[in-house]
Amino acid sequence: MSRASRARHIAAAAAYGGGIGAAGVGAAGLVGYGLLKAEARLARRIVGKPFEGAPDDSDVYGSGLGRPVELVVLGDSLAAGMGCDNRFQTIGGVLATGVSALAGRPVRLTNRAEIGGESSWLAGQVDRALQACTHPDVAVVTIGGNDVTHRIDRTESVRDLADAVARLREAGAEVVVGTCPDLGTIEPVAQPLKAIMRRWSRDLAAAQTVAVVEAGGRTVSLGDLLSNDFLSQPDQMFSHDRFHPSPAGYARAAAAMLPSVCAALGLWAGETDRAPDRLRGESVDPVSVAAGRAVSRPGTEVSPADVGGRGHGPRGRWAKLLRRRRPDGPPDAEEVDDDATAHALATGS
Q1: In this structure, what are the phi and psi dihedrals at residue 38, rounded to the nearest 5 degrees?
Q2: What's this model's pTM, rounded to 2 decimal places?
Q3: Residues acting as catalytic residues
Q4: Can you say whether residue 244 is alpha, beta or left, with left for phi > 0 and alpha for psi between -120 and 50 degrees?
Q5: Which domain holds residue 65?
Q6: CA-CA distance, 49 to 32, in Å (whole number)?
Q7: In contact, 118 and 154? CB cutoff 8 Å
């Protein structure tokens, strides 16, 4: 089964009820759980002591005339800014500063993300965010890593995310979701767990994309955004726990999401509703196909689209795939390759 098919299946199960098992039922069948648990324990010993918290970045950023742009941030430790020294270094702080500069208006940031957050935590976060900010202009969500490491049922994770997006859209917010990062790129994780985690992460990211677009939001693939930098500049891009990004790493993640946030707010002339450029590898596809392509290219945006005035085609919801940020290099090999690698490493074939 291709990644697009798996993503469509997971998202459909999330939308219509039922489940298909924990995050790694299929892949984990390739190896014994004992081996996976042993590798996970080893990775936890290698990873440095976690940070105790994150800076409180809920505040007003920038200046200018007019009503402040209302920005809400939800999700996990990535959204909270674990490992940052001050509010200006978090993803929310960087986004708020950038949006203010482009809009010529102040930005009021309301951050309700939580360290250790799973998708099931989003309902409470949305409650608290809408109590503090009843009419957000845009909401940014990063979630999924803890769902993978805790082997949460993917259909439950996707359902919780879709519900949160739907509620935020009902409140009038544009929604931009940074999909699950590729946990197979974390250096302390050894093989074969590294390959398995890569597949789990990418499958969840693709399913998240399908569900978010169906709910009226847009996604930005975080994928293995920092992997090359980890190899070449580990001391600069990752914090001393060797797991969470450093301030420079957070800035890199925020830079990948900023174009989509600004486009959602209509701040970039020519970028808000532009047509795909096939020379950049952009296209309009069924959402499951776009989702499968996006996970292998960090910074890729997927959003709802219409074809001939229709939002749905024979293969489901239409989606527009855009690469708003400059690509760092050639795309990954076909998505099936990581599944084959996981199988080969796990079985020794």
Answers
A1: -65, -45
A2: 0.83
A3: 77, 241, 244
A4: beta
A5: 3-273+323-347
A6: 28
A7: no
